[in-house]
Amino acid sequence: MDNVKDSEISKRTVFVTVGTTCFDALVRAVESKEVKDGLLRRGYTHLFIQMGRGTHTPTKSVGGDGSLSVDYFNFSSSIADHLRSASLVISHAGSIFETLQFAKPLIVVVNEDLMDNHQSELAEELADRKHLFCAHPQTLHQIIASMDMESLLPYHPGDATPVVEYINRFLGFPDA
């Protein structure tokens, strides 16, 4: 193998996404010494943060000296490539299903600043079903330290066809 391939194999990226909102509490949490140290202990080498409309700007670093490489951006037309290449995803609750479709280990961090936070209920339910880990900004470092990747179960979305057909019949639409 050449050096490029060797370095790509050893690169383990954590992709953090906050979506289009401001979730500075998550960005600050992943920048904390406790979280970075926990990620390093687990063999992660790169932290790539999508910070949305946040006002807190992460500190970039190149890593390589036993520290985590950190980079960030605000928005992307699609985060699919970032999700696909990540070894671990840390996300706000709005990107749960987009991440699970790539079968990536996922930590959902609940944004406690949102009113009527139904997404936290979804995250907690999926965590109870062992499809992901659920945290709050202040507990993220503890989840990283204690997470057991082997305990996660694949998420298989259900077939929505019967529900769609029922709704169509109820609304009087002809069968397709």
UniProtKB/TrEMBL annotation:
<dbReference type="InterPro" id="IPR052474">
    <property type="entry name" value="UDP-GlcNAc_transferase"/>
</dbReference>
<protein>
    <submittedName>
        <fullName>UDP-N-acetylglucosamine transferase subunit ALG13 isoform X1</fullName>
    </submittedName>
</protein>
<feature type="domain" description="Glycosyl transferase family 28 C-terminal">
    <location>
        <begin position="13"/>
        <end position="157"/>
    </location>
</feature>
<dbReference type="GO" id="GO:0043541">
    <property type="term" value="C:UDP-N-acetylglucosamine transferase complex"/>
</dbReference>
<keyword id="KW-0808">Transferase</keyword>
<dbReference type="InterPro" id="IPR007235">
    <property type="entry name" value="Glyco_trans_28_C"/>
</dbReference>
<dbReference type="Pfam" id="PF04101">
    <property type="entry name" value="Glyco_tran_28_C"/>
</dbReference>
<dbReference type="GO" id="GO:0016758">
    <property type="term" value="F:hexosyltransferase activity"/>
</dbReference>
<dbReference type="GO" id="GO:0006488">
    <property type="term" value="P:dolichol-linked oligosaccharide biosynthetic process"/>
</dbReference>
